[in-house]
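During the second year of the project, the team shifted from modelling isolated chains to modelling whole assemblies. The rationale, set out in the original proposal, was that interfaces cannot be judged from single-chain predictions alone. As a representative example for this report, we include one of the complexes processed in the last quarter. Its constituent sequences, exactly as entered into the pipeline, are reproduced here:
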Amino acid sequence: MPENRREQEKKREFEELFVPLLDNLYNIALRMTRNPKDAEDLVQEAYLKAFRFFHRFERGTNARAWILTILTNTFRTKYRKKKQEPDIVDFQAIENFCLADEMVKIIRASDKSEARGAGEVIRLLKDYVSDDILEALEAVPEQFRLAVLLSDVEDFSYQEIAEILDVSVGTVKSRIFRGRKILQKQLWDFAKERGIVRDTKK
Amino acid sequence: MTCQEAVNKLYEYIDSELDRATTEKIKKHLDLCRLCCDQFEFEKTMKELVHKCCDAAKAPDVLKEKILKSLNP
Ligand SMILES: [Zn+2]
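Output from the structure prediction step:
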């Protein structure tokens, strides 16, 4: 096959595999960088790198995982120190935090009848709008946020996340656990700040 | 299976990380235990909410154009 035909073929294959993933990558990049301009730059850079290293992509393996690894690494080397990360969280206080329990307490306090269980708590949870959840996510330190995003948004297995982040499966597990707890604590703090709920302990 | 044992595996359960035998044991516990069932349901909803709100943006058209252009100079 002549050189330029091979080059055309390569481009076509690359576009077929990766262009449909663009929205998905952009969403993740937005949550990583927390800024649309940086997200665009990050995604573009990831695509360029992916194209440059396309010969290393093993056909038949997960293309989304492959380009997300590139995106994640690019983010970590380039953007991580740009915007100030939230303070390291007090894990002791967060480890046992459970948003559902806090909500049950509120429901019980406001309503003399027995808590009506999941239905009511989930209704409270769904009162949060997207912006609340996105803002709460921003408060989760990067390493935990990434693990949660790869699990919740990308639906990767712990093993896949371990490979993308280049850490052990045990580390992935604990980052997801902590990330989710921090997120819930943050959502709870919002609810209190805005007076949506009153802290029963006070 | 006790509540504590079930709750310890809560995230692995909702993330589909457990083998079939353990998954079945938890399912059985959830069928019998209202408290755990509520908590599992809550965490599952939380996961779905995160998914939904992080999946809503569309990449700007200019970004797509820029990328395609850079592949076809
Ligand atoms: Zn139980």
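Residues 169-193 of chain A form the longest helix (25 residues). Residues B 3, 6, 29, 33, 35-36 surround zinc ion (CB under 6 Å).
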